[in-house]
Amino acid sequence: MLSEFRTLLPLVRRYRTQYVLGILSLMITSGAQLAIPQFVGRSVDVLSAGTVDMQRIVMLMLAMLGTAVVIAAGRLGWRFFIHGSSRRIEAELRRRLYDHLLELPPGYYERTKTGDLMARATNDMNAIRTAVGMALVAFVDGVFMTVAILIILIGQNPRLALVTVAPLPVITITLILLGNRIGHLFRAVQAGFSRLSDQAQEVLSGIRVVKAFVKERYFLKRFADANENYQQQNMRLVRVWGLFFPVVTFLSGLTLLLLLWFGGRELLAGELSTGDFVATLSYLQMLTWPMMGAGFTVNMLQRGAASLARINEVLDTAPSITSPEDARVAPAAGGIRIQDLTFHYEGMDAPALRDVTVELPPGGMLGILGRTGSGKSTLAGLLPRLIDPPAGTVFVDGTDVRDYHLDTLRNAFGVVPQTTFLFSATIEANVTFARPDASREEVERVGRLSAIDTDVGGFPEGWETVVGERGVTLSGGQRQRIAIARALLADPEILVLDDALSAVDTRTEERILNGLLEARRGKTTVIVSNRVSTFRTADQVIVLDRGAVVQRGTHDELVRESGLYREIFELQQQERAKEHP
Fold first, then answer.
1. Phi, psi of 546 (to 5 degrees)
2. Strand 524-528 relative to strand 365-370: parallel, antiparallel, unpaired?
């Protein structure tokens, strides 16, 4: 269990001064609390003496008042230092987790559910904060109070102390037996919460599809089942954890029963003063908290360890795509060469790409055509290392892309992926994502190039119109054109459009291509598309089929040549003739 806390050691060391001050404040608070029963016992002895000594009573009252002030100040101190440090550690660990998530490649998110990651970044972090905050308080306070009270009781009356505390070791044994079980059950609870979060996130993200297919009841049933499972996992944990408090209460009651029996006999025999009896009773009642605190400590540490194991699982996932130590940082000019590229996805037998060789000089335009699943998007993702290519297969300006610093390489690219993503912000903020300092004139210029300007003019707030999450308030074509404007504003050396014009009509596509080619004169452009008309002005077109290049040439050359390109061209010509007779 404790091995999982290795991740927190550097953070705890950073705040060790605050923790030391917090522990000192806690010990001062606990030490002052231990003085209260002594004052009460002396007051009882004074009152039971028959003659009231008001001066001594007042002095005891003032002493108790001063002790209460010390307790309040100490309690404020340990809360400020220990809880404050635990909050800072939580924030830094969450920041570290977020930073690490940003370093992981896109493929990681294809294997990992978003809801699960959200649960780890929220619910698990709360458990970790408690483990490095309140668990430490419960442990230190419990140990200090237990040891101090036992020393006081044994110092005052050894025989009575040993008799009355005899049931306490049973509590320790109970804690040991319940500890591992609590950790196992809490891990199941956290996993259930992750499933619940993931289902909610998935349905809310795809709510249009859910409603379109009238699947509300189906997903409501799925969520109800996950919710029921989460409740059952919590109830299993509660049943085990719930055993602890009755046991502690019962055993604490036994210590009081033993005190009444044996201490009462000594009191009647005159061997024990009334004040000492009352003080001993108070100390035994105070021992209940350390015993419960031990239970809290075990519970919170087990929960924290289970949550840290889930966080460490992410942090221990090494980024598969990284910059080499001697990475090239010189900007790229845009020349692309792909040499004998064969690429396999992990777990797949058949290669996604086979023996692909392409060369495109700086400033050229490459078109990529192929049926669905032919490897077009894979090839587009390999160029900026969104997917990692084998060494010695993909080059930019003669340098293997694996030898570039990732920031340098990706800054040279502007990628508009197949699935367009927009942030829940204004249209202008989405366009200026890569260049926040861009002027409105520049935004409007790329808006005209991407043909989104006419749509923006019809929106109530124009460029300040806020789009919904993932751009849900816009059409597919509008989202694609905003994404194209975003890439054009960045003005990269290499622009990759991965089927980024699929949702626009042919007339708008022609307008975009004409403006794009004019604006990007002298810069490299790679266009992936299923429309042959897109490649009319391309310097080179390659046709992929089952991962292999089966044709290459210009548009005019491929139209004259029998093969897949001409088949698609003729089919699309027929469809266009039907649409525009």
1. 55, 40
2. parallel
